[in-house]
What we know:
Elements: H1 2-17, H2 19-38, E1 48-54, H3 59-69, E2 74-78, H4 83-91, E3 97-101, H5 105-111, E4 118-121, H6 126-154, H7 177-209, H8 217-245, H9 254-276, H10 283-299, H11 311-317, H12 321-334, H13 343-366
Parallel strand pairs: 1-2, 1-3
Antiparallel strand pairs: 3-4
Amino acid sequence: MSAVWASLRQTLLAVLLDRYAIVVMVGAVILYSFFYPAAYRHQVAGNLPILVVDQDHSATSRELLRRLDALRVARVVGQPASVDSARRQLEAGDAEGIVLIPANLERDILRGHPAKLVLLGNGAYLGRASWVLGSVADALGSFGREAAVTQAAFMGVPQAPPVTLVQRPLYNTQEGYGSAIVPGVAELIVHQTLLMGIGVLLGGRRLALGRRLRFDLPTLAGMALGFGLIGLFGLFYYAGFTAWVQDYPRGGNPVGQLFGGTLFIAATVAFGLFVGSFFRTRERAFQYIIATSIPLFFLANLSWPTVMTPPPLVWLSQLLPTTSGINLMVRLTQMDASLADVSHELVTLGVLLLLYGSLAVWRLHSQKGDGGD
């Protein structure tokens, strides 16, 4: 047991004294916690310009204009005299949408005739267009329901709308891209920086010795424990402090996060020791991370549905700790999932821990000699 603790201390000391390892395993984790989410600080589009073509010039159209201008997602930047003029401004990039208030809008409402409003959007940027069109459409729909009440009252049948729809998002409360993507990417960052650090240390040591690395089992256990502690720091730093500072969904199932996160990091360390055993130089670790980061995220099927992924890739993804680890942590952190809800991911990570742990022991302990890789 003393040999394990001695190896643990040596591993932590090696990380602290190796500038490359400390930068990628600790520095990069902290840097990315501020740098990466900054791109999604404004998670939803806001204050986007729209144009209003008012052909009615009535009290009703002015009230509608006031409501549109009060929307958080949009601001009225102009009132062109014609649709053609508004279209030219839209094509020039001066606005994201056009609302056309046709002539006789108020008269049609009061007479009981169907009134129409026209909404046009710029589809060049699908995210902004959908958000503007959806938000403005909701405002127009609300205005239309109130207009129906006014119309009914004028015709002698005053009554409120029978149903009012109230929408509340369950998990992604801000309905933002950042809340959907950043928590999953955080797990990938922890996984990749941990693998990079392990590869840097193993590759650097192998280059210095000029031979295949071999360790006894207590040394390997201490190394794995040291790398695991660093990985857990990064994982819970993102799930706790970073999520709180950046105001992302958090909390969820803390006991499940502790258990599932520990299993995820353990599988990652085992995977990293196995993969790192092939690195002859520390630079190989950086090349591996650059080549695999984006494929790993898409194979996790967090942003790309599993049903749209070819079955062979789905099967292959189960061999990667990131697939189960990312989905596991997102569900436990954001969705308050129970351990039973993520039992498949837990079992998969347990199997991967045994698989890559055995392969790491085979590569770094059991097989003797300096045979080529």
